[in-house]
UniProtKB/TrEMBL annotation:
The lineage of its organism: Eukaryota, Metazoa, Ecdysozoa, Nematoda, Chromadorea. It comes from the Eukaryota. Belongs to the glutaminase family. This is glutaminase.
């Protein structure tokens, strides 16, 4: 067993889960009604190890839209299908040092990285670009379900419609990128590219299913529940590198300093955290801090690192 003292481990996770619960910091996102209606008291923690041990505390069966966490998996899937070199022809690897939705490009006129909106729109546009929109959506749903070992992955159409209705900035980003010839020539419809990006933000998971998805990343791209390879090994390494440097918006530098683990957060209050070769963690609590990360999620990670030697450089 990868975690030999499983019950003592779970007891400490429970302690941290309970210690973080009373936190009342932060605000639930309000830019779309579907997120504004989320319960600020929702709080779930799920862990799945690379050998399939599971533990769940709190609201771990409640569905939520995965929002920006999709950026990590979309990149991993695109790079597995097309090769990392091809994908990085169109998007960089550098933290932007700017807001996640800022209108800016790097010195080669590419989005800075796949974890900001501009980069994620480009990455979405590359995925199965020869298929029609229905088949592309089905393709991604089946890839997500494979990565989650068949656990819950849904689609929230109300979130999709709201995202599309309030997408002025994402339209502005796409037009700016079109003007600067950021899209590959085979991408002919900018609105299709945006719709696909909004649809992927509107996929739903639960703490339980997302912990399996994170565990697949921890396990080098092989789902620990099914032993099926879902992500090629180089894209798996690459997405973890990008999550480490760019996964937590403008808190990414501080998060990698204090916590030292690859992670990705989303505006619904979801966070996935990967302990390579050990486990995937999903945290969900809707109130966000000023930088857009889940308050309880970040607090949980700091406490986790004070109890266990999971920081990337703890082993030195
Ligand atoms: N869907 C929203 C956008 O594209 C927010 C994504 C996120 O989780 N930050 O702007």
């Amino acid at each position: 067993l990868i975690v030999p003292s499983w019950n003592p481990f779970c007891n400490i996770i429970k302690e941290i889960f309970e210690a973080v619960r009373p936190l009342s910091d932060g605000d639930v996102a309000t830019y779309i009604p579907q997120l504004a209606r989320q319960n600020p008291d929702s709080w779930g923690v799920s862990i799945c190890t690379v050998d399939g041990q599971r533990v769940n505390f709190g609201d771990t069966k409640n569905p939520f839209c995965i929002q920006s966490v999709s950026k990590a998996f979309n990149y991993a899937i695109a790079a597995s299908d097309l090769g990392a070199d091809f994908v990085h022809h169109f998007v960089g690897q550098e933290p932007s040092g700017r807001l996640f939705n800022e209108i800016c490009l790097d010195s080669k006129n590419r989005p800075h990285n796949p974890m900001v909106n501009s980069g994620a729109i480009i990455v979405s546009s590359l995925i199965q670009s020869k298929m029609n929109m229905a088949d592309r959506f089905d393709y991604m749903l089946s890839q997500y379900r494979k990565i989650s070992g068949g656990e819950y992955v849904g689609f929230n159409n109300a979130v999709f419609l709201s995202e599309r209705l309030t997408a002025d900035r994402n339209y502005a980003l796409a037009y700016y990128m079109k003007e600067n010839k950021c899209f590959p020539p085979e991408v002919t419809s900018m609105t299709d590219a945006l719709d696909f990006y909004f649809q992927l933000c509107s996929l739903e998971g639960t703490c339980e299913s997302m912990s399996v998805m994170a565990a697949t990343l921890a396990n080098g791209g092989v789902c620990p529940l099914t032993e099926e390879r879902c992500i090629e090994s180089r894209p798996c390494r690459d997405v973890l590198s990008l999550m480490y440097s760019c996964g937590m918006y403008d808190y990414s530098g501080q998060f990698s300093f204090h916590v030292g683990l690859p992670a990705k957060s989303g505006v619904s209050g979801v966070m996935i955290v990967v302990v390579p070769n050990l486990m995937g963690i999903c945290l969900w609590s809707p109130p966000l801090d000023k930088l857009g990360n889940s308050c309880r999620g970040v607090a949980f990670c700091k406490e986790l690192i004070s109890r266990f030697n999971f920081h990337n450089y703890d082993s030195l």
